[in-house]
Amino acid sequence: MTEREEYSIPEGFYYTKDHEWVRRKTGESDVVLVGITDYAAKMLHDIVYVTLPQEGQILSQKEVLGQVESVKTVADVYMPVSGSILKTNQELTLKPELISESPYESGWMVEVKASNLDNELKSLLSRNQYSEYVNQLKASEEEA
Amino acid sequence: MPKKTHLYRFHKEEGGKLIEFSGFEMPLWYKGIVEEHGAVRNSVGIFDVSHMGRLLIEGRDATKFLDFILPTNVEKMKDSRAFYSAICNERGGIIDDSVTNRFSSSKYMMVVNAANIEKDLRWLESHASGFEVSISNSSENSALIAIQGPLARATLQKICDVDLGSMKRFAFSTAKVAGVECIVSRTGYTGEDGFEITVLDTPLDSPAKAERVWESLLEAGKEYSIQPCGLGARDLLRLEAGMCLYGQDLNDDITPIEASLSSIVSQEKSVEYVGRKVIDEQIRNGTSRIRVGFVMTEDGIPRHEFDVVLGGVKVGVVTSGSFSPILKKGIGMAYVPRALSEIGQKFMIKIRNLEREAQVTRMPFYDTSKYGITRKTSSST
Prior knowledge:
Number of domains of chain A: 1
Oligomer: heterodimer
Helix content of chain B: 10-25%
CATH class of the domain at 8-50 and 142-239 in chain B: Alpha Beta
CATH architecture of the domain at 8-50 and 142-239 in chain B: 2-Layer Sandwich
CATH topology of the domain at 8-50 and 142-239 in chain B: Gyrase A, domain 2
Number of helices of chain A: 5
Distance between the termini of chain B: 43 Å
Largest interface: A-B, 14 and 23 residues
CATH superfamily of the domain at 8-50 and 142-239 in chain B: Probable tRNA modification gtpase trme, domain 1
Strand content of chain A: 25-35%
Order of helices and strands of chain A: EEEHEEEEEHHEHH
CATH architecture of chain A: Beta Barrel
Largest sheet of chain A: 6 strands, antiparallel
Number of strands of chain A: 9
Structural class of chain B: alpha+beta
Largest sheet of chain B: 6 strands, mixed
Strand order of the largest sheet of chain B: 10-11-12-9-3-13
Number of helices of chain B: 8
Radius of gyration of chain A: 15 Å
CATH class of chain A: Mainly Beta
Shape of chain B: globular
Distance between the termini of chain A: 14 Å
């Protein structure tokens, strides 16, 4: 690659090894937004279709909440925390590319009323931990 | 260790994502599949297809031999013309699909799928007894570059010493491209006008000539925003054009009749060829399944091996599927019962746990007055 790709990994988010992020909604204790990371979006590339869950659906941590599809591949997206789906980002059905353009803001996928938030957040990665994890992935990819 | 083509250095430096494909390390994309696809549909793109096999069939009986191997009427083909065909087994199943270049009645070059080179060679050699013919693999002594799109001709003409305007589709000629000795044929696998350039006499360990042609094409196409394109764009372009990919849409158990490729089968041909019994029988009586193109009329993207369902029962299988940036819809190819193969027929595609409606459509999938070789409007840039 001509230029080293940089991935945005903002503070104030929790991350998973499957490349989802969680962020507490401002002013609410147990409502979170969920999406996929900049790294995941760049790996998928050319995102053309997003499948979202039904609002009201109750899903546990690590259950599949939907899919993000590029021209070539389908990636499952997993619930980073347990809870019920309050809202889905309907804008993504018309503009799936929002996930690549703005993975942490307008590319959010679902809003979740979390049922066991404080406990489950402990199982997730901090910004630094996720950043280190992504660097490891990049290193092993370059070796291969 | 995956193999590398002559242009590996470029791919490594410029490729956004490299993958292993048929034993070769190849670019899936450089800038992105959708962008590269758009370049070929609207302007011009180039592809390294040097991984494909080039098999030479030479000798006094070369024509007779190929007439025994292929369902096409090879004897009738003109010199300096290429034709699409398929090598079939005794059951009529497709061993490989290929484009064969006829230099003369005693010299042909078959361009075959990378994954099938060894299989094809074994098959050809084991069927050559009694024919005065020699079969050799010339893949590594040349490179193969495709330039495709409505502005492919304008781009290539700048650096090519033969008149491309008078070259008919499927014709080929020796030519100098950027001063390098090549074979230029007006062929491709994208549905668009374009050329395939065999860069001669450039072994893998001295790729300079191949690099020179590749870089000269990029330079010549700069004013048209030419893009190097990876295998991802190539796969999407061929799917939109309704063309088959071996290993997905074609295999050893699928005949040309089932694959809706009856145009490669000559019925007037007087000689026996391998698979003829089955193929003739299928022409007379039809086959129970047939390849169709379909477009999603509901949300969802069909993928390889998804089920085709009707009334809750599996009736067929998707062999290729993707999202078409032109149609902004899911499109695919499937094998379905003949009774469900009429244009307009509806069935369901099982996408994970949901059934989504699809409709059989003509291929190419795009509007042929706007895209592809029959487009009426030449692209303005």
